[in-house]
Design a protein that fits this description.
Order of helices and strands: HEHHEHEEEEHEHEHHEE
Strand content: 15-25%
Number of domains: 1
Shape: globular
């Protein structure tokens, strides 16, 4: 199953910019440093570093493909990707963009890698914060690492080989809230956020994670129609989806996504841009 994740997806494929990935670091810390020198987080960046991107550049966070991301970077700075950019020359993005770039580099190097959408509990104590990380096949197991935050500071654990209890995939978060007593309102965009949290948000993270396991790496604010957490029949499907998403190498997950109409991957999504709005439909296949 790991071999499936060696080939680039339609989203991660750098296409004509393939050469830019030659001669980049092969160690995870080095790859993380490359991504950190190329992407500027639209929300966390101003809080941490103080530079606020001009409003007209916020559209960059809707950059879907690696090809377009690299074209945007080159238009600002033609130096090799191994050379960090000033904040103004970086791609404005989010955790998904750090992770997609790291994933694309790893796949270019012939290594199996995939994005995982879910929640990290290492940002705010007692809270599960929306986040996207990377899994890479290493020796005989999937190793999780956080390319956005690795080497940035001491998080109390190894961000290049993350323990299982610091990050919950969308499916795992669904299970925690459905059957283990976790509070769904503690999963979202922050403890002070009153809307982007709870069951609907967990369900969307589950769906985005399943899409990524099918090598469709969507934006964090893409909405997938078809299932509702409030409908009992749909909730049962989501229970099954959550279970299979935490056992993704069994092949059953992808088989269901091909054969079952309720599980099929979307050809279009509704993009809910967090800054410029309003929501709009986007073809993704």
């Amino acid at each position: 199953m790991a071999e499936y994740y060696v080939e680039q997806s339609a989203t991660s494929d750098p296409k004509e910019y393939n050469y830019l990935f030659d001669n980049l670091p092969t160690d995870l810390a080095g790859i993380a440093q490359v991504t950190q020198g190329l992407v500027y987080h639209y929300m966390a960046g101003p809080y941490i570093y103080g530079w606020i991107p001009p409003k007209e550049r916020t559209v960059e966070i809707n950059t879907r493909s690696m090809e377009c991301s690299l074209a945007t970077l080159l238009a600002k700075d033609e130096r090799p990707l191994s050379e960090p950019r000033n904040f103004e020359q970086r791609l404005i993005g989010c955790c998904r963009d750090f992770s997609l770039l790291a994933c694309a580099i790893l796949r270019h190097q012939g290594r199996a890698a995939r994005l995982r959408y879910g929640f990290g509990n290492y940002f705010v104590p007692g809270y599960w914060f929306d986040h996207v990380i990377v899994e890479v096949w290493h020796s005989d197991r999937w190793l999780r690492f956080d390319p956005q935050l690795s080497t940035q500071r001491d998080w109390g654990f190894n961000t290049l080989d993350m323990p299982v209890d610091v990050f919950a995939t969308g499916g795992r978060a669904w299970q925690m809230c459905r059957s283990e007593g976790a509070d769904p309102d503690r999963f979202g965009l922050g403890p002070d956020e009153t809307f982007v949290r709870g069951w609907w948000f967990i369900r969307e993270r589950l769906q985005l994670d399943v899409a990524a396991l099918n090598k469709i790496e969507l934006l964090c604010w893409d909405g997938i129609k078809g299932l509702s957490e409030t409908q009992p029949a749909d909730a049962t499907i989501l229970d099954e989806m959550a279970l299979l998403s935490i056992q993704p190498d069994s092949s059953e997950l992808r088989q269901r996504c091909v054969s079952d109409p309720r599980w099929q991957m979307p050809t279009s999504v509704t993009c809910f841009h967090p800054i410029i709005g309003p929501a709009f439909a986007v073809q993704v296949a």
